[in-house]
Write a structure and sequence with these properties.
Elements: H1 6-12, E1 20-27, H2 30-39, E2 46-53, E3 72-78, H3 89-105, E4 110-113, E5 117-120, E6 123-135, E7 138-148, H4 168-172, H5 178-199, H6 202-211, E8 218-223, E9 226-235, E10 241-244, E11 250-253, E12 257-260
Parallel strand pairs: 1-2
Antiparallel strand pairs: 2-3, 3-7, 4-5, 5-6, 6-7, 8-9, 8-12, 9-10, 10-11
The structure holds biotin.
């Protein structure tokens, strides 16, 4: 089944996420186009899928490598209810949905790195870029863009990311069906988004903490051009990472790139 097949569209008909599908052979960025469609009034649950992106966007103004024929590049438009939840919780829920989906195809190997990178064996397999449209203080819509490295072989990655990125096929040792993966991704996203909008953040946060590889470890986060470090102890109500710093104070970081620091063995005898 191709990503443009009638059969995929049929399987997504009536689903909360995916009931409207826009397919592109090649596009600049599915997030940019989703934002444009959102401004035109596209309904919640509209999804965009591209076979390749010429200007795939990552977090922190990075480029997302988006060659054709092997991966998933998708964006979804969500219109979260106002007042009942914080919109910054949506990308956290998306990280949970993506990690669960990847685990279904790669037998429980995936973990989440704050805020919502999905890693297998410490290498990145999936990234999420959320962008929101505000009208004054209210959120009009949020675009959640998800990129998953699916069937890329090691040598097909650019040299500079070969050591830090991986794909589902490399890790599972077999080719993965992209249509099956994308259907499960939308189903899991709908499940966690519903949980968030109906019952609040608690369930999402618990699952995130469960899937995260950082909690309890000493991490360093580049935040507003400054490196802050501490023990990762939890997630704040808005999805910020809570760090316990060396002077025993809690500090929250709302954005940035986190790295797990290697524990230094201070025992001189080395045992
Ligand atoms: C990151 O980890 O830096 C986020 C990567 C997000 C990539 C996806 S691919 C689909 C969507 N369109 C984009 O331009 N970016 C996101």
């Amino acid at each position: 089944m191709s990503l443009n097949s009638e059969s995929l569209k049929k399987k997504l008909a009536g689903k909360m996420i995916g009931h409207r599908l826009h397919y592109y052979e090649d596009i600049g960025s599915t997030n940019d186009e989703a934002f444009r469609l959102g401004e035109e009034g596209a309904p919640e649950g509209t999804v965009l899928i591209a076979e390749s992106q010429s200007s795939g966007k990552g977090r922190m103004q990075r480029v997302w490598y988006s060659p054709p024929g092997a991966n998933i590049y998708t964006s979804m438009i969500l219109r979260p209810p106002t007042g009942t939840m914080q919109v910054t919780q949506v990308p956290i829920a998306a990280g949970v949905a993506a990690a669960e989906t990847i685990n279904e195809f790669c037998s429980g190997k995936a973990s989440i790195k704050w805020p919502n990178d999905v890693l297998i064996g410490g290498k990145k397999v999936c990234g999420i870029l959320a962008q929101m449209k505000m009208s004054g203080k209210t959120v009009d819509f949020i675009v959640v863009g998800i990129g998953i490295n699916v069937n890329l072989a090691r040598e097909q990655f650019p040299h500079d990311i070969q050591e830090i990125a991986t794909s589902l096929a490399i890790e599972a040792g077999r080719e993965i069906s992209r249509p099956d993966l994308i259907i499960r991704l939308y189903e899991n996203m709908a499940k966690w988004y519903r949980e968030l909008t109906r019952n609040g953040f608690a369930g999402v946060r618990e699952r995130w903490l469960n899937l995260s590889e950082m909690i309890g470890k000493t991490v360093s986060v580049m935040f507003q051009n400054e490196a802050v470090s501490g023990k990762a102890v939890g997630l704040d109500e808005d999805g910020s990472l809570i760090l316990l710093t060396a002077n025993n104070q809690n500090m929250t970081v709302s954005a940035g790139d986190a790295t797990i620091l290697k524990e230094v063995n201070t025992n001189a005898a080395g045992d």
